[in-house]
Prior knowledge:
five-stranded mixed β-sheet, Purple Acid Phosphatase, chain A, domain 2, alpha/beta
Amino acid sequence: MEKRLLKVRTVILSDVHLGTHDCKAREVNHFLKYTRCDKLILNGDIIDGWRLRQSGYWPKSHTRFIRHVLKKMEKRDTQVIYLRGNHDDVLAKFLPIAFENLQIVEDHIHETADGRRYFVLHGDVFDTVTKNFVFLAYLGDWGYRVLLRINRLYNKWRAWRGKDYYSISQAVKARVKQAVNHVSNFEQHISELAKSRGCTGVMCGHIHTAADRMMGEVHYLNSGDWVESLTALVEHLDGRIELIDFATFRQDYPLEDETTEAGEALEPAEIQPPAPVPVPAA
Length: 282
């Protein structure tokens, strides 16, 4: 039986952080598997080069993400736009690159089906620490990873108690004044940049805070992340843009159990010719 799919014009993902223990690869793979789009925008920090240089952690589920993207390019003729982030900043040396259905760029102008123009960029250009104080950026990344590790242990305890998942880092970000101000300033600056480029909206990532709201005259969109938020942006066929969270998505497209998913191929297996039957000697 053919599986029901979410068919849209564009999918926008950011901050997947492949190569880290906190990447929710299973969930993002499921999301890609059940979506079809003409254009896939990977808006930075898809592969976490910072962590790969230190640990070399790369499970099969992370390779599966790459295979999903390649399948969309090869089998579905999907146009893929990959924007450099700060964790995959090694790409900055080679930009721009374009071949077949793949473009790797610094920023991008996306035009919706109804004619609106959105300025697409990862957003780290407005992060002073990331841009000018590399040591502090690495220190902040280390602190964030420690917080995520504590978060994993805490949520194991919550699961044992029968309680729902709770994000400590998101709670800290929402309540600490400096973090709130940082997010607010980031959103304001990036919205002003989009307006200066003659765009009606902006799509970004970087701060791991999903959003869909108006900032004055500018439509501000942040695709969130696949570490904690588990969110993505989609443009429907009529040009309408929607922020989708995975908790809602999985209600319509249930997540398979891990055993089934691990054993399922992305493409039907090739039928192998039967082995020749040995002919007995005369």
